[in-house]
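Attaching the record inline, Q. Sequence:
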Amino acid sequence: MSATNDTTDLPSETSIALAFLMSLLAFAIMVGNAVVILAFVVDKNLRHRSNYFFLNLAISDFFVGVISIPLYIPHRLFDWKFEDNICAFWLTIDYLLCTTSVYNIVLISFDRYQSVSNAVSYRAQHTGILKIVVLMVTIWVVAFLVHGPIILVSEAWKNGKGDCEPGFFTEW
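Structure, as predicted:
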């Protein structure tokens, strides 16, 4: 990581203010996505094909607010050095969740495109829940396969400095 991106030399007041604002952001992410998930569970009228994709996006973004951001705050702002196991977990989960969010947005965009360009046939081909769930699980599997194996195998993040950067930043 370059020195221009380093936040450990900030004054403590600035780091505390940033940590507070980032914590508020994480809390807003958790609450907002929890509302979406609960609305989907409670209101059966929301259970349409495209809304399942929004549910999948809400689940991945909820975990960004629960796992990724809370671990990022002390690591980046207060120079908390991760142990190797925590680093591997955080990197894998962080890249998985972020990639899953992006892929969910792509899937939602494709679904919306299909609904607009093929409006009549789109409504008629209300596919079963099994196909929708397979698409949702496929998003998670493909997102893991993009970054997960290379993070877990490369071990470049085990540099002893506590940097916790993925191996593809330095090796490839």
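Helices lie at 12-42, 49-77, 84-117, 119-124, 129-154, 167-170. The chain has a mean pLDDT of 84.

More tomorrow.
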